[in-house]
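[INFO] parsing input record for Alpha tubulin suppressor
[DEBUG] input buffer:
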Amino acid sequence: MLLALGSNGSGQLGIGHGDDVSAPQTCSLPPPFEAAAHVRIAAGGNHTLVLGLSKPSSQDVPSSVLYASGDNSDGRCGGSPRRLNTFRHADLRTDNGTPLYDIKLCSATWEASIFVTPEDEVFSCGTGLKGELGLGEEVTQATAPQLISNFPPKDTRIVDLASSMGHTVAVLSNGDVYGWGQGRKGQLGHPAGICWEPRKIDGIGFKAVRAVCGRDFVYVVGSPDEGTHTTLGSDKWSVRSTAPDNIAGWKSVGASWHGVYVLLKSGKLIGWGRNDHGQMPPANTPLIEDFAAGSEHVLAKTKTGKLLAWGWGEHGNCGAPTAAGGDVADRWNEIEVEGEVVEVGAGCATSWIHVAES
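[DEBUG] output buffer:
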């Protein structure tokens, strides 16, 4: 079961209407979502992709199934352009009608969607005025998924994919990182500016294994044993200059629009960057099992199974109560849900909770 709360003006929560909610609501997801052992949430400005990865023992179901809800006026959710208030199977077909049956990775910019197939073909659709589609110079719209040609390079595979408002990065099996979209702050390497198609980001200095995107930066990490990491792009809110020297023992990483978060294997969650809404982990935060960073908030599952939220919660994405400006600062809200929390997700003022079926 998938629950959601937060911003919902375009139906991006997939709960059947277009009102914001501050308590978890059950998303409408058609079968075979029940077979999903894990989910990947990719949330754009007004649309959401939910990638369900099935249990290894599942029979007669695809290894993955992709759902979409929200603004689909430009085809960013696949199928006929229209607003979606509930999740439906993303009918991904290329412009010649060929269906994309299986997806292994997905991400979303503000108005576009990016998909990677098990064969490591990369497709994009929607709107991208600053190269977000990666389809070549001046290609700003694709109402059906279009193949990003000549990518990835021969004999490499895509092992991680991440996007923020205006740019996307892909980590390859050889440790290289490629990016496309808005790169005016140097987040996609140099020369700074728009990258209309995937370009290798030089100068990282180690083999990358994961990457996440802030609004104007890219955060790249190497092996957990080595703890190497680097930030490219804007240093606004000191996302580069206040980073620790090493993050050895990291378990997971995330980024908000203006902050970086690292979950260590010990369960300690650390962060640096913007904190004017209380986005950084509050003092005495308990040990964390899983977390997700949204635009300016965090949703976290503790090692004891509790669900916490803090940061900018104006749209209800941090639950209740909030301060007058919508913040949950220097503390957290405990979000009540029935059932065992499997994993969490977060997007643009949205929060997502995957709960095990009882």
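[INFO] The chain has a mean pLDDT of 95.
[INFO] shutting down worker
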